[in-house]
Design goal:
heterodimer; A: alpha+beta; 2 domains; ten-stranded mixed β-sheet; 14 helices; 56% helix; B: alpha+beta; 12 helices; elongated
């Protein structure tokens, strides 16, 4: 500890170089932190939104293949099912010119509160949703992006169905990342009847199961029930359902991780360069210290400590910078990052901060070891002869 | 002027220092060109899609053909609109298409939404960039399909001559097609009626593609379709449609530029350090050179050349690694899959193109200039007497 002032003096000796190195390491660490938000955003989304007692049932052939509406009743009658609701994609567009889209689904209003109890939709708003046939419950992400509020009237243009529907917003899903726009199935059904069409299919069924232990057997039971029917089903947990959406991004995430690795390697070289330069310039001094009786180990330790402190400082600066940068980004709440999906969450978690900092410390250590080892081992006489 | 050999020779004196700095620049170049290559590869798949003489007709408001519905009667009437091209037999070059996205299963057990386009044989004449390279076109109503090059080999049963399962039925693969590396290469084509049956679609078509006749005004034709009061349809140029899809890739450029800026400045700091150290250890030499009569400009330029040489070496090493890595990744990952707006999978072959390398070069030069300027000007400002005395 008493050598801390020495280390500090050494760092302060070439302030410009120390600042530039810390800056370079800081920039690289902040970059690593920002890149790491992408894969971690995916994980976070899955853990945040997915409930372990909610199951989704869809057509085995694909998500755009419908199921008969009668499936819903059959699923509801199974033991262990607390509630079940269907989603049918309406494909409505808000502003045709701008092509503003968000996922909009027709749903039964009664089971909404129990299937998505974890969404914590206001009881009064749920009540309104049941009462008003043209009511809509909208996720906060879409409300914010469009600047809508409860009570607003809006019209969506149907692209898949030949009907346009007008809604009044009666409630919100209180989750910053929820984009959904949900409305009464009955409303779509009646509009289609008026247009001479029938709504006898559904998109997917969401099932709330009473006990997590019962989830797997129930999924098997549902799929067994519709085996060899016109439309076979595939049931899966909410988590695996969302994960499959993003599995096609997995190669992309691999590349992001590779790039992150490259940037991390960059830090090693920058730090190693600085460490080797400062050790080289101080060879004479180090020889004098050794001649005065300071041990090899001590010299090695102070040199490594110097490198670690330098990159630690850079790392801390970088981690904080990434945090500040993302806060700024979120404050602006620009719409562009929504098209990146969960990759664009840009949320620097504590884990990422710690990872960034540890990366810097680790890098500082390995970058300092080689030159410090060389300097500590050098023979005093040879060095002094060379330098003076 | 100082000879070039002086600058380059100096770099070889402190080999470790030079090598470390070159490595930093190289890594930054690899990271940016690799990522930039990914984004530009994605963009290229859209940018090369579409024929300038084609119109795409969708339901008003639909942003892609996966979320659109066009009734049969509309198609029947559109075919005979004035301005639609005809083939040698007098048949209109109008292709009614149905798009569905069934699950395809990867050999690893994953599943992806693949865009299956139901078409009639006329589609080959309308999308004339599509060329069947192996096998033949499917026969209508016989359960046959053809695969885009990006799909072939990626999924279970996706090979010429094998049986492919998707939707409710099984299909025989009779051909593989190329489409100028456009997004069509990530599609599977089947007979439109069979596909509609299989998917139990009540509205048979998602959209219609029209080829405009020679000399016909595309915009006038598009307006006539849009203004027709019988159907709420909207026609746009195919190239505009795909350009809009390509815009969704622009978001990724923000990441590329952010990456380049942050990593580039970091690398410039590293280069500055190296050159300051070089200036410091060569004070006496610089003093001597000045005393011999070399001008400040000559010293400045000599140090700038040193830093640019480091940057160029970094670029050379970095771009070689990036190009190799891109190939390796492409082979390892079997094409990079992207979920497009329609939620169907777009298979992109990762390639570091000339544009990406150009960007990498510009970045490396910027690093060299930015990193070299301050130390070089310090060297140039050294006063010969002081430099010599201190040494």
């Amino acid at each position: 500890m008493k050598f801390l002032p020495l280390i500090w003096r050494n760092l302060a000796r070439n302030k410009l170089r120390t600042a530039l190195t810390a800056g370079a390491i800081g920039l690289a660490v902040s970059l690593v932190c920002l890149l790491l938000t992408m894969p971690s955003g995916l994980d976070m989304l899955l853990n945040q939104v997915a409930s372990n007692t909610r199951v989704v049932v869809h057509n085995e052939a694909g998500l755009v293949y419908p199921l008969p509406y009668s499936d819903l009743q059959k699923i509801r009658s199974l033991p262990g099912v607390v509630a079940a609701a269907s989603w049918t994609w309406y494909g409505g567009v808000f502003e045709v010119e701008k092509g503003v889209t968000f996922p909009n689904f027709a749903v039964e209003p009664e089971p909404l509160g129990s299937v998505w109890a974890d969404w914590k939709i206001d009881a009064k708003q749920l009540e309104d949703f049941r009462r008003y046939r043209d009511g809509a419950i909208v996720g906060r992400a879409t409300l914010k992006r469009q600047g809508w509020k409860i009570g607003d009237l809006i019209t969506l243009k149907g692209t898949l169905y030949p009907v346009d529907l007008s809604f009044r917003i009666v409630g919100e899903i209180p989750n910053e990342r929820a984009p959904h726009f949900l409305f009464q199935r009955e409303y779509l059904d009646q509009a289609l009847k008026a247009a001479g069409r029938n709504l006898d299919t559904l998109g997917i069924v969401w099932v709330r199961v009473d006990d997590p232990a019962r989830v797997a057997p129930l999924m098997a039971q549902i799929d067994q029930m519709f085996k060899n029917s016109e439309a076979e089903t595939a049931s899966e947990t909410e988590k695996s359902y969302f994960a499959s959406f993003f599995s096609m991004l997995s190669a992309f995430v691999t590349i992001i991780l590779i790039v992150t690795g490259l940037v991390a390697l960059c830090i090693v070289f920058i730090a190693a360069n600085t460490a080797s330069m400062s050790v080289r310039e101080r060879l004479g001094e180090i020889a004098v210290l050794k001649a005065l009786g300071f041990g090899r180990r001590l010299i090695f330790a102070t040199l490594v400590a110097e490198a670690v402190i330098l990159s630690g400082l850079g790392g801390a600066f970088g981690a904080l910078a990434s945090l500040g940068f993302t806060q700024l980004l979120h404050a602006r709440a620009s719409s562009w990052n929504s098209s990146l999906g969960p990759l664009g969450s840009f949320i620097v978690t504590e884990t990422i901060l710690v990872q960034g900092l540890f990366l810097a410390l680790f890098v500082g250590m390995i970058s300092g070891v080689v030159p410090a080892f060389g300097a500590a081992r050098r023979s005093v006489a040879a060095t002094l002869r060379e330098v003076f | 002027m100082l000879p070039l050999r002086y600058s380059l020779g100096n770099l070889l004196v402190r080999r470790t220092r030079t090598a470390l700095t070159v490595s930093v620049v190289a890594l930054v170049v690899v990271a940016t060109t690799l990522f930039g290559g990914l984004v530009s590869s994605l963009k290229r798949t859209f940018a090369t899609s579409g024929n300038p003489r084609n119109l795409i007709v969708l339901r008003k408001g639909a942003t892609n053909d996966g979320s659109s519905a066009v009734p049969l009667e509309a198609y029947q009437s559109l075919r005979f609109f004035e301005g639609v091209a005809r083939d040698a037999q007098g048949q209109p070059l109008a292709s009614a298409e149905l798009v569905v996205q069934p699950f395809f299963h990867t050999p690893a057990g994953g599943r992806e939404n693949v865009l299956v386009r139901g078409v009639e044989p006329v589609a080959l004449a309308v999308h004339d960039e599509v060329k069947i390279t192996e096998g033949r076109m499917f026969e209508p109503s016989s359960g046959e399909v053809i695969l885009g090059r990006g799909v072939a080999g990626r999924y279970v049963g996706a090979a010429l001559g094998s049986t492919l399962k998707f939707g409710h039925g099984t299909w025989k693969v009779v051909g593989i097609f190329d489409a100028d590396r456009s997004s069509l290469e990530s599609e599977v084509w089947a007979d439109v009626r069979e596909l509609a049956n299989d998917a139990k679609r009540s509205v048979p078509y998602s959209g219609v593609r029209l080829r405009a006749a020679e000399g016909a005004d595309l915009d006038a034709l598009a307006r006539r379709i849009g203004d027709d009061p019988r159907w709420a349809l909207e026609a746009s140029r195919e190239t505009d449609y795909y350009a809009k899809q390509a815009e969704s890739a622009n978001v990724f450029y923000v990441i590329v530029f952010g990456l380049a800026a942050l990593a580039g400045i970091g690398a410039a700091f590293g280069a500055t350090n190296t050159l300051y150290a070089a200036v410091q250890s060569r004070r006496a030499e610089i003093g001597t050179l000045r005393a011999l009569g070399f001008s400040r400009a000559a010293i400045l330029i000599s140090f700038l050349i040193e830093s640019l040489a480091i940057a160029l070496a970094g670029f050379a090493v970095g771009s070689a690694i990036a190009a190799g890595l891109a190939r390796l990744l492409s082979w390892w990952l079997g094409g990079i899959a992207f979920g497009s707006q329609t939620f169907s999978t777009n298979v992109v072959q990762l390639r570091v193109g000339l544009g990406d390398l150009g960007f990498g070069l510009a970045l490396a030069l910027a690093i060299g200039l930015l990193g070299g300027l301050a130390p070089a000007s310090r060297a140039a400002r050294l006063r010969p007497v002081e430099a010599l005395r201190k040494a």
